[in-house]
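Our collaborator T.R. sent over the components below with a one-line note: 'Predict the complex.' Nothing else. No constraints on interfaces, no templates requested, no preferences about which chain binds where. So this is a plain run: every listed entity goes in together, and whatever single assembly comes back becomes the starting point for the next discussion.
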Amino acid sequence: MDFTGRDFLQILDFSPDELRYMLDVAKVFKNYKKTGQSHKYFPDKNAVLIFEKTSTRTRCSFEVACHDLGIGTTYLDPSGSQMGHKESIADTAQVLAKLYDGIEYRGFAQKTVDDLAKYADVPVWNGLTDYCHPTQALADFLTIEEHFGSLDELTVAYLGDTRNNVANSLMAMSAKMGVNYIGCGPEVLKPDTKLLKQCQEVAAQTGAQITITSDLQTLANTADVIYTDVWLSMGEDKAKWQERIDQLKPYQVTMDVMNLAGPDAIFMHPLPSFHDLETSVGRDVHDKFGLSELEVTNEVFNSKRSLVFEEAENRMHTIKTVIYLTLKGRE
Ligand code: CP
Ligand code: NVA
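Returned assembly:
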C-alpha cells in the first residue's frame, strides 16, 4: 500500500483498505510508544504546522508525533503568517514546500487546505476545517476498535449538530469501514446533501447503513457508540448560542440517552467539551442562558462509559501514522 507523497485532506479520498491499513499501522506505533521503542525514521525532515484556529490535542499530537519520528517542526499561530492576508495560498504553498517536507493546516475553508495541497508538492495534512476533521475520525475508529475488539456489526450514533466538521468525518469513516451510522439532530442541522449522497454510495459498497433522523428513539437498543460534539464550532457566530441551545438541548447526552442506547454503549467526544462550569466559555453560557452542562452532562462525561481521554491519546498515534505513511520512502 503506497501513501508516499499523498495529501490527507478528507476521509473520502481513501479506500476502505487504505483506512484499515492506517488503523493497523497506528496500533504498531501505539505499541512502540508504550514499549519505548525508538522510531525516529526521519531525522532530516521538517514540517510546518499552520493553525488559523486554536488547538490543544491536534497541535500537541502533531508536535509529539513529529518529535517521535525525528521530524523538526515550526508552529505558525493564527497571527503568525502572511498566508491569505499579504500572500496568496498558492504563493505560500510553493514557498513552504521549498522549506518543508510536510504541511499541516487547521483553519476555516476546506478550499484553503485543498489549495495548499494543489500548489505544494509535499504532503498536506488537514488538521480541521469548517468542513471536516479527518484525523479525528481515524482516532475515533482506533478507539472504537480497541474497545469492542472489532468494527463488525457496530452502530455509531452522533447526537447534535450533524452537519459539523467532526460529524462529517465520522459519517464518512463509518461508511468506509462498513459501520452503521445514525446522525440524530434537528432537521435544520442536517448533513450537507452532497456529502450524504457520497457517503450513502460508499455505504452501499461496504454494507453500512446511514440514517439521518430527528427521533432519539432510533437509538433504542441499537447504538454501540454515543458521540457528540460542541453545539457551536470554532468560527461560528457567538450570537447563535441561544438558537443552538434551543435546537440542540433535546439532543444533550444524558445518562437516560446512554441507557436508551443500551447497557454496553460507550460515550465519545473529540474535546474540548462543555460539561461543567470549569471553563470561561462554559461560565459565560451559564450566566447568559442558565445551563451548567451543554452537549453532555458531567455525569456521562465522567462515567466509566466515557472513552474521551483514550480517544484524545489516539489522536497522536493516528496523526503519527498519517505523517509516517505519507513521508515513507522519502527518508
Ligand atoms: N479534538 C480536537 O481537534 O481538539 P483540539 O481543538 O484541541 O485540537
Ligand atoms: N466542531 C468543533 C471541533 C473541535 C475539535 C469545532 O470545529 O470547533
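Summary for T.R.: The longest strand covers residues 46-51.
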